[in-house]
């Protein structure tokens, strides 16, 4: 299991889960909800926009602090970033992808597609976030451990 840690870029995992959501929605059309098209689209656009905003805000703050945004190499981090969205969530970029997946699931209109969102959150937590947290705790020690205690992992 450890050989999956930090191996698949999170955007690829997100795209795979989006495909899974589509497949689930189309394999079980009887679960589909009949939402007004404009409402479903509007809600999906708001959620997707919020997700993109979280991703870009998190990336911008990392760049401003001159630390690596590459989730596959947490050992190259230069500092514990605690400003911007990192005051509210330790993983704004992953939260952004999750919000975009939620938007996609809403647009698909099939509650079964939400299983793909659960897969994303579980996979990213186990194979990306937990290994990142171990690496950052080893690199930064008590300041990072204090950050872990004060800011939630997701929201």
Provide a short characterization of the protein structure.
With 155 residues, the chain is mainly α. It has helices at 10-27, 37-64, 92-108, 114-140, 142-150.
Number of helices: 5
Give the proportion of residues in helices.
55-70%
Radius of gyration: 17 Å
- Kindly report how far apart the N and C termini lie: 26 Å
Oligomer classification? single chain
Low-confidence stretches: none
Instruction: Give the strand content.
Output: under 5%
Task: Spell out the key features of this protein.
155 residues; mainly alpha; 5 helices; 64% helix; 0% strand; elongated
How would you describe what is shown here?
The chain is mainly α and 155 residues long. It has a domain at 41-69 and 80-155. 64% of the residues lie in helices and 0% in strands. The protein has helices at 10-27, 37-64, 92-108, 114-140, 142-150. α1 packs parallel to α3 (92-108). It is elongated, with a radius of gyration of 17 Å.
């Amino acid at each position: 299991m450890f050989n999956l840690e930090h191996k698949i870029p999170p955007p690829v995992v997100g795209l795979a889960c989006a495909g899974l959501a589509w497949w689930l929605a189309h394999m079980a059309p009887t679960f589909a909800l009949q939402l007004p098209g404009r409402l479903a689209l509007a809600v999906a656009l708001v959620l997707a926009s919020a997700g993109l905003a979280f991703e870009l805000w998190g990336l911008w703050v990392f760049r401003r602090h001159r630390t690596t945004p590459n989730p596959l190499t947490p050992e190259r981090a230069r500092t514990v970033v605690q400003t911007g969205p990192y005051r509210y969530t330790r993983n704004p970029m992953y939260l952004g992808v999750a919000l975009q997946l939620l938007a996609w699931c809403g647009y698909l209109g099939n509650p079964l597609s939400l299983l793909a969102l659960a897969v994303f959150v579980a996979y990213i937590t186990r194979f990306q976030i937990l290994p990142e947290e171990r690496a950052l705790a080893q690199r930064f020690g008590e300041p990072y451990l204090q950050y872990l205690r004060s800011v939630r992992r997701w929201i």
